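Reading group handout, session on sequence-to-structure problems. Before we discuss, look at one worked example. The prompt was deliberately terse, the way you'd type it at a terminal:

> structure Inter-alpha-trypsin inhibitor heavy chain H3

The input record follows.
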Amino acid sequence: MSGLLGIRLLLLLWGCGCLWLTSPTSAALVIFEDTEAPEEMTGSATWLQKRSTNETMPQVEVHSVTVDCTVTSRFAHTVITSVALNRANSSKEIFFEVELPKSAFITNFSMEIEGKVYVGEVKEKEKAKKQYEKAVSSGQTAGLVKASGRKMEKFSVSVSIAAESNVTFILTYEELLQRKLGQYEIQIRVKPKSLVQQFRILANIYEPQGLSYVDAQATFLSNELLPLVEKTVMDKKAQISFSPTVEQQRKCPGCDGTLIDGDFIIKYDVDRQGSLGDIQIVNGYFVHFFAPPDLPRVPKNVVFVIDRSGSMSGRKMAQ
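And the output record:
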């Protein structure tokens, strides 16, 4: 437990936003010790790993990973919760990594270690950057958000856990779903990197306009895992769940490799029988959803540009 009382975690955002702020400037998250733990911490999933791999037996165990996604009127609220245990007789460093859509914004990140809760706070970019550099130089726990590809951002943080102790990570992010190619898509990147005692993905969708169809698939689904995707669809509500056991996660009988590695994707669309679309009014604000189905296709001109400037020299031009 030594060193935990003074723990401070700063999460600096590089590039454009995973945090939604009222001002257009970039921002950061700072984690500090909270003397009063929040009463409500429902949640979902996270991916963890230990830095040292020299031990023959894993001393850091990922006990649970849960992804809990709630969608209401095309707005997705996702909570990722994970619990890791340090079974060694000395402190260990544990990594928490999650990839989330670039269009999403983080609304909360917290850690619970031995009954103490450390909660994130939004800071202005320049001030947060100085705190981040100070934290790194003094050897304190620090984390950041950075690009991970065209569609994803990677959130990562590490923390040192005392012997025979555990840590709970809770990450919450939100996203306004965009309709593309006639459907809405929820993409959940799952990479636990090891077998998990309790693994679950649960999504609840509610659309007042009504649901026309709902589909769930994953890049890692085999013939054995496919029946584990349970889907219940009603007029305006749908629930999708996926909860494999430890044995069902294994790549092969007796091995420690996991099949859970890839994207879990939920696609759906709403009922669009009304020609005027759907208008929702809440607290004096309104939103109008419409997607006219019979508009003529608009002619398009496609222009290809080949950049041969100095900045493209070397490997870029060869590609």
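Points for discussion. First: The chain has three helices and 20 strands. Second: The first strand starts at residue 9 and ends at 13.
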